[in-house]
Amino acid sequence: MANHFGRPGAIRKGAKKGTKVGSGGQRRAALEGKGPTPKAEDRTYHPAYKRKKAAEAAAAKAAGPKLRGILRLPAGHELIAGRNPVVEAVSSGIPFTRVFVVGALANDDRVAEIMRAATRAGAPLLEVTRSELDRMTDGAVHQGVALEVPPYEYAELDELVEASYDSARPGLIVALDSVTDPHNLGAVLRSASAFRADGVLIPERRSASVNVTVWKVSAGAVARVPIAREKNLVRALEQLKANGYFVVGLAGDGDQSVSSLSLADVPLVLVTGSEGKGLSRLVRETCDAVASIPIASDMESLNAAVATGIALYQVDQLREQ
What we know:
Blueprint: H1 28-31, H2 47-63, E1 78-81, H3 83-91, E2 98-102, H4 109-121, E3 125-128, H5 130-136, E4 145-149, H6 157-163, E5 172-177, H7 182-194, E6 199-203, H8 212-217, E7 227-230, H9 233-242, E8 246-250, E9 256-257, E10 268-273, H10 281-286, E11 289-292, H11 304-320
Parallel strand pairs: 2-3, 5-6, 5-10, 6-7, 8-10, 8-11, 9-11
Antiparallel strand pairs: 1-4, 2-4
Helix pairs in contact: 3-4, 7-11
């Protein structure tokens, strides 16, 4: 009987048994590798793994237990830490919701003063451990006492306008254009309070907001001068103009001096720009006038808060004449 190789009994030389080429990859999985070798610290049998676990356990022990629920701060709340800062905050009228004190310090004179202020304000006084206060203040120097400050409640723009109705003087509002330093905002509020401004207007974006720093720098002026925050500063200025206000921007290249401002005896908005870029283009175009503060030629510009304070003083003096 003839076979496939042409003659009886013939066999193909070199023929092999087993899997033929093109077998459909039935052994592919067995031929694939098991991936990269795990790091020593990830191999459960390796000494490096045991060292890693020991370090994690030590870190967890050092961190201590989680803060009690009552000690967690609500969103937007901040802490003022340290005996002197807390005493100054309480004295300047900063609103606060709770006081945290390490129990062993109750006999300290400054802590006792803080505790009396908390009692007068009806604010809860919570005794904490030093380690708890460490975690609450992220390791800041707290000296065993901290004050919880709630978020600031901004006024409406109409409230700033209405404030002038109760005054014998024309309305006066300070607007800040892209002033992002909270120290500047606090200093402006202090000047606004000193020179009887009806309020301060800031934009929601690209501006400092009222926080603990602003409260401290303003020396309590935040409690006396309402602050309105608007989404669109240009639109807010247009609204004030519709209410009879004249808008005067402050810039080094202004066409008149603040000391001779002809609009001082009418409802007025003084607009101060950022220290670097000054007034933005749209805000400047919205102004009815742009005034300058004469300074020495070797000085490029004034700090935003300083310029605002000088302008407020000049307006106050012009209105007294």
